[in-house]
From TrEMBL:
Subunit and partners: The complex comprises the extracytoplasmic solute receptor protein and the two transmembrane proteins.
Compartments it resides in: Cell inner membrane
Parts of the chain that traverse the membrane: 29-49, 70-89, 109-131, 152-176, 188-210, 237-254, 297-317, 329-349, 361-380, 386-405, 417-441
Database matches in NCBIfam families: dctM
Protein name stated in the entry: TRAP transporter large permease protein
GO molecular function, one term: transmembrane transporter activity
Annotated ranges, domain TRAP C4-dicarboxylate transport system permease DctM subunit: 12-436
The organism of origin for this protein: Profundibacterium mesophilum KAUST100406-0324
Protein family per UniProt: Belongs to the TRAP transporter large permease family.
Membrane topology: Multi-pass membrane protein
Listed GO CC annotations: plasma membrane
High-level lineage: Bacteria, Pseudomonadati, Pseudomonadota, Alphaproteobacteria, Rhodobacterales
Alphabetized Pfam families for the sequence: DctM (PF06808)
UniProt function note: Part of the tripartite ATP-independent periplasmic (TRAP) transport system.
């Protein structure tokens, strides 16, 4: 049986199962297992199932075992734990409270503080959805209480939450690095400048929005003293220290990404107990939530690893590379096609699902064109970031809708999101046009 045909049918089957809301780990592993069995059963021409059981089980179990025993994968539970512990210890929200105190008198200052808070939260947790969920509970209700435009109060947090995908540490960067065998430390550093550009772009959107419509953000009439500002800035030092450990330690060659994660987890626990904001009960809850979230990610990664091995067996990736090469597509046209594919998938699927589904085909293709995989990783993550707020299924938008309830209809949130999407597309074009924005820091390690 033709392997390419089996591979293409498998891709269609996975997309169909995901559309039916089958968990992605089971969809990937199930389709890959059945596809592998079919290939080996028909290898001699006639159907011989007795010859397919052993190689199929070998492919499934050996790839799962190799992935779970990967050293790089160990940083996922560490960074997930860091996010939960830092939240329980009030470390992740300190950036928002400091920014709010300093910017409250600036037009749209609370919305800007929300975006900055999302950026600070992202610099510790590495999860966009967790960022949107947590900051949404804190920021959106407060802005609504202050009389902010409902679109601004919700869209700013939904968009700001996407920064968790790009600003290191990022779970998506870790998964990308594992499956493409690229340096995760370099990927983290590559996301810093594009992440900061995205954050600055969101602040500009808020500034222009409020400048054109002052009623969207009522002016603050209270009094903020210099002492309050100084106290708020000092209270945010743990979050700044953790970010410096992660980025500075990796950039300076002091830590690997995994070591930086371990050091930060220890530091977060010590700081939390020292400031008496973390209890043993809260620590236990953080670790329990870490186990649940990590198990989910590991199952998806294991299913993806099996699927990648199956795709390699079918030979569909080389066939697609050959077809694209023969079509003589220019590099810009190829990148445009890749962007369209990711944006379309982002409207319906979650980021991890899109990544593990597309990387087996995209990586050989971009390598053929000589693209840098570190830079391409930033492009992919930015595309996935955009997908988190793209209608009709922007996951971050649905998260914020769940937080604010019936007070703000979801169509109102999406109408506000369009302004942030425009700046996201502009940043994407900049990243694709000027790879140096992504490669500058990794090149100077």
């Amino acid at each position: 049986m033709d392997g390419t045909l089996v591979g293409l049918v498998a891709f269609a089957a996975v997309i169909g199962l995901l559309a039916l809301r089958v968990p992605i780990a089971f969809a990937l592993a199930g389709v890959a297992s059945v596809g592998t069995f079919v290939i080996f059963a028909f290898r001699t021409g006639a159907f011989a199932p007795e010859r397919a059981f052993r190689p199929t089980s070998s492919l499934v179990f050996s790839n799962s075992f190799d992935l779970i025993h990967s050293y790089d994968l160990s940083m996922i539970p560490l960074f997930v734990a860091l996010g939960h512990i830092a939240y329980k210890a009030d470390i992740t929200t300190a950036i928002y409270h400091a920014a709010r105190v300093w910017l409250v008198k600036v037009p749209g200052g609370v919305a800007m503080a929300s975006v900055l808070g999302c950026g600070g939260f992202s610099a510790i947790t590495g999860s966009s959805i967790a960022c949107a969920s947590t900051m949404g509970r804190i920021c959106s209700p407060e802005m609504l209480r202050l009389g902010y435009d409902k679109r601004l109060a919700t869209a700013s947090v939904a968009a700001g939450g996407t920064l968790g995908s790009l600003i290191p540490p990022s779970v998506l960067f870790i998964i990308y690095g594992i499956f493409t065998e690229t340096s995760i430390s370099k990927l983290f550093l590559a996301g810093v400048i594009p992440g900061l550009i995205s954050l600055a772009g969101f602040l500009i959107v808020i500034f222009v929005w409020v400048k054109r419509d002052p009623a969207a953000a009522p002016a603050f009439t209270g009094v903020i003293t210099a002492r309050e500002k100084a106290r708020a800035a000092l209270d945010s030092w743990p979050a700044v220290a953790l970010f410096v450990i992660i980025v500075g330690g990796i950039y300076g060659g002091i830590f690997t990404a995994t070591e930086a994660a371990a050091v930060c987890v220890s530091a977060a626990v010590i700081i939390g107990f020292a400031q008496r904001k973390l209890t043993f009960r809260a620590l236990w809850e953080a670790l329990r939530e870490t186990c649940i979230q990590t198990t989910s990610i590991f199952l998806i990664a294991a299913g993806a690893k099996i699927f990648v091995a199956f795709i390699a067996l079918t030979g569909v990736a080389p066939d697609i590379v050959t077809a694209v090469t023969e079509a003589q597509l220019s590099a810009p046209l190829l990148l445009a096609a890749i962007a369209v594919i990711y944006l379309l998938l982002g409207m319906f699927l979650d980021p991890i699902g899109i990544m593990v589904l597309t990387l087996p085909l995209m990586v050989p293709l971009v390598e053929t064109y000589g693209f840098d995989l570190i830079w391409f990783g930033v492009v992919v993550i930015k595309l996935l970031e955009i997908g988190l707020i793209t209608p009709p299924v922007g996951l971050n938008v649905f998260v914020i809708a769940g937080v604010v309830g019936k007070e703000v209809p979801i169509d109102r949130i999406f109408s506000g999101i369009l302004r942030f999407l425009s700046i996201d597309v502009l940043v994407l074009v900049l990243i694709m046009s000027f790879p140096v924005l992504s490669l500058l820091l990794p090149a100077t390690m």
